[in-house]
Please model this.
Amino acid sequence: MYPYLFTPIHINQVEIKNRIAYPALGLLYSYDRKLNDRYYHFFEERAKGGAGIVTVGPVGVDFIGSGFIVLGIDTDDAIPGFQKLTHLIKSHGAKAWIQLFHAGAYSHPLLINNQQPIAPSEQFCRYSKTTPKAMTIEDIHQVQHAFCDAAKRAQESGFDGVEIIASAGYLITQFLSPLTNHREDEYGGSFENRLRFPLELISKMRQCVGSDYPLTIRMAGNDFVSGSNTDMETPKIAAAYANAGIDAINVTGGWHESKIPQLPMELPRTAYAYLSLNIKRHVKVPVMASNRISSPEDAEKIIRDGYADMVNLGRVLIADPYWPKKASMEHPELIRPCVACSQGCSDQVFSGKPVFCIANPQAGFETERKLSVTQTPKKVMVVGAGPAGLEAAITASQIGHQVSLYEKQSDIGGQVWLAGAPPGKQELWQFIRYYRAMLHELKIELHLNTLVDVECIQRLQPEHIIIAEGASPVSPPIQGITHPSILSAWHVLKNNPLLHGNVAIIGGGSVGLETALFVAAKGTLSPESLYFLFSYDAEPHDRLQELMFRGSCRVTVFELTPKAGKDIGRSTRWIIMQKLARYGVEIITQAKVTTIQAGVISYETDGQPLTKTVDHVILASGVSSVKTITNAIQQLNIPYTCIGDCVQPSNIGKAIHDGYMAAMNI
Model:
C-alpha cells in the first residue's frame, strides 16, 4: 500500500528498515540531565511501533549549552544509561540515533545556574531574553572538542548514528546567520567564514567517529527570520555539509523566534516539504523531510514524488507510536491522530513541564497506564459520545468489557464538531474519523438519537456506567441577553447561519476568538480561488492579500478581563492573535457589556459608558456542566463514574484522559 515508505535505505554503512524516523524532541522527563525509566519506556515504545530510526535528544554536549532540563552526555558516567537505552531501541529492530545539542545564545541563564550563555557574538537574544558572552577562539575549540567527546561516548553507548543540531536558532545557526554573527575574525563576516565553525566541527567529528559511522545533521531549510539565511542560501550550506563528511541531512523549518508558524495546526500538512526538495537538488546524500507529516498518504507522497528520501514523524509518533506498523499492515484508519494542537508537547516544553499528548493518554505514561485484559469483564454502559465517552468506550472494550455507547445526537463527536469549524481547525475532526474506525474495529454497540434516562438504565441493567453528558453554553447577566435574535457561539459554529455587517462577540476566551475567526472568514477568498487568481495574475498581489482577509462581516470581540485568549496555549496564542489582526477583528478588553437592545450594545470600559451599533450578537461567555443523568442515577444501586465536562468544563485533552482513566478503573 505504501511501497516507497517501507523500502529500506542506507545511511553510510547502516541499513534502515524503512523511511520513517522519530526525530529528537524535548521531553523534560528529568531535571538532572539523566535518563530514567520514563525515558526508557517512552523510547522503547516508539521502537516497538516500527520506526526505522528512533532519535534520542536533544542531548547536551556540555552544561552551559544545554542546562539541567536537557539530557547530557558530557561525562563517561552517562554511558551506561545510554547503553541500556540503545539496547531497548535496537531490540525492536529500530536504529538508535542521538542528537548532540548546544543552544548557544538560546540557553536561558536560569537553566545554567545563572551563568552567562556563550554565542558567536555579544548580542541580545530575543528568545532567551539575555545577552550572551562572545565566544573566544578557545571557547570555539572547547565546544568543538565537547561535540567530539560526546560523539565518541555515543558510539560507546551503542548508538547507530549521531546527528548534529544546526537548526531552530541554536549555536550553529547563530554562527551561520549574519543577524547573530558579527565577528570580525575568521569565524565571521563572509559566508565562507560564517560556515567555518560547523565545517571544522564536522571534520573533527568525522575524524573521531571514523569514516564508516553515520554522521548526520539537522538544518533549517529557511530560517524564516528577516535578515537571516533563506532557502536561497541553505542549499549551499547543505552542499558544504555533505562535502565535509555529513551522511544525511535532516531538513526542518525555521527558528524558534520566527513569526511564521513552524509546527501548529495553522501550518498545512507537508507545507515545508519544498524545503527538503530544495536541499535534495544540491546534495547526493539522503535528505529527510519534517514538519506536519501526518498521514501515511502524506509520507508516501513525499518519498514517491522526490521531495525527500525519509520523513520525520515527531509528534505523530507521540500520538501513536504504532503509526508505522498500522500503516504497513494497511490499517491507517486505526492510527490515533496528531492534530498539531501543541497543547501536550510544545506548550509543555515552553512551560518547563514534561511532555504528554492530549490524544494519547499513554504517551509519557507507558508503564503506569499500560492496558491489560480484565479478569472480571462487566457489562458497561457509556452515556455520551463526545471525546470523553468515546475514549472510555474504546478503552473499556480493549480491556475486555462488554461496552454499549449511547448518544442523544445523530452522530458522535460532541463539541469536536464545533472546535473544528473555524478556519484552519478542521484537523480536529480527525478525532471523529479515528473514533469511528475504532468503534467499528472493536464492534462496540453504538446507539445514536437515544436519550438515556433512569428508566432506560433500569431496563438495560448495566454493571457499570460511565457518564459523559458534557456541558452547555451559559448566558451572562446582561439586560436583553434573552432576545431570540442573540446567538450562541455553539449555534454559529454548528449551523453556520447567515450573518452580515457588524457582528459582536461577547467573550474573548478561546471559544470567542475562534468564533471571531469563523465569522470574519465569511466572504473571503478560498485557497483554490486564490491559487487560480494568483496563477493568472488576475489581481495585483496586494489586492489578493486584501481579499484573503476582508469578507462580509466586521467583527468586534468584547472581553471583560484585561487580556483576551488567556486559556489558549503559549505556542499558539500568538498565531490566533496575529490572524485576528489580519482579519481586522477588533478586540475590546476590560469591556463590561451592560445592555443589548435594538441593535445597540452598551458597555463600559475604564468606567466610561460607550455604545456600538451591531447587526448580530454572539455569546461566547462560557459553559456549565450538564448533570441530568448524574443527579438522577444516584437513586440507583449501580456503580458509575462521571467524566469530562459534566464534572468540570475543561478541554479535549482532559476529556480524553478522563475517559481512558475511567475505563482503566472500572
User: Anything to note?
Assistant: The domain at 9-350 is CATH 3.20.20.70 (TIM Barrel). The radius of gyration is 27 Å. The chain has a mean pLDDT of 96.
